[in-house]
Design a protein that fits this description.
Elements (H helix, E strand, L loop, with lengths): L2 E5 L3 H12 L3 E6 L2 H9 L3 E4 L5 H5 L7 E4 L8 H7 L2 H10 L6 E5 L6 H18 L3 E4 L7 H16 L2
Parallel strand pairs: 1-2, 1-4, 2-3, 4-5, 5-6
Helix pairs in contact: 1-7, 5-6
Amino acid sequence: MARALIVGCGCSGRALGSELLEEGWAVRGTSRDAEGLAAIEAAGIEPVRADPERPGTVLELVDDVAVLIWLLGSATGDAETVAAIHGPRLESLLERLVETPVRGFVYEGAGTVDAKLLAGGAELCRNAERTWHIPVAVTETPREHGPAWVEEMEAAVIELLTRR
């Protein structure tokens, strides 16, 4: 059974996680706070505390993960923090993923975050794929498209494991 780690497992992440669970995946979802962890657990997803601003907290969770899903296209918070999780923090995580069992990385490339930050994050992901051969998918469907968003995310996750 393959395991996915959803970083930023809010409402949309829980919808994706539920779909992956139905497909037979083991799913782990992250939150920074107790309320988020409780909602993740209520959705039947394994809840874990992690902070995307601290890549080490995410890396601690990937020992048995096949695909890491970075659902931060609509991240909120101060501008410096949001820029960091789509820039230097993301880059640091990607550099260290090469030494883990992770076999794919899905980056949410659409959302309410500034388009330049999302484009920069997508380029960091593509660079990691070129440099370390970490299969990457960058999604482009906004969350507002509901089922189409979930469908694109789920397809990206599955495609990464079947890519040769």
